Amino acid sequence: MAKTKSRSLPLNKRGLNFEMLMWLFTRLSALAMYGLILIAIIGALIMGARTQMNMADVLRWGFMPNSTHVQSTNITALEPWANPFWRVTGSLLLLLAVAHGVHGLVVITDDYIVSARGRLIVRWLSIAMMILMSIIGVYILWTS
Amino acid sequence: MGLKRNVSLATGLRYKGQGPMLTYVLHRIGGLGMAVFVTVHILASFLGGEIGVFLNTVYENWLFQIFIFFCALFHAINGLRITILDLFPKLLDHSREAIWIEWAVFIPVFGLAVLVIVQSAMGG
To answer: Do B2 and A116 touch (CB under 8 A)?
Structure first.
């Protein structure tokens, strides 16, 4: 079988436009979310060290470090965990996830909606959805 | 803009993209699954009430947990592979091997999680 050589341009030859920036953002936000979730999982392991927290509850805290997210579990004394550190961590995770996810949805719809008008509508809808979900999410995180 | 592809759905389904195509399809399914879940989840916790309680019973169903964990884990591991290969383009020569490594990480972690989920669903 002939070895196919994969082609890819180095970063400095690709030019810098919005699509390129979002391409880069998708990858960098993925790495950032890995970091934030790792921090939250470490937090959950500290939180559950005395109470034998199970894997599902550790992951609940890992995917969104907010005290209401583990409310229905039998973890006690959650008050100290509703502090600015976890609110900032949770907000960063939320904002990155919303932007990453909404951009992903636009990429998918671009494969099926090919008219210029349709793509414009998708873009306006995606911006509206991104702003709405970010506001609702941050509101929940800082008022709970 | 205005791109036109003259490929029918039937032709698309007959396309034999093998391993890389499978990861591409699963990455999309995982991403879509998480996007729908997270959107509904945020809206439900904002609105609360009966809808929130009903949706909680859906999330806590073991079948749903297996599905959403598949979405999250596959999307995360496949996304990390894409990120590493794209940020270090020299590694693209080994993209097939990278996919094998990906499955070698995914299958044990997902299998273990399914075992735990099913065990606790059985009451135990």
So the answer is: yes
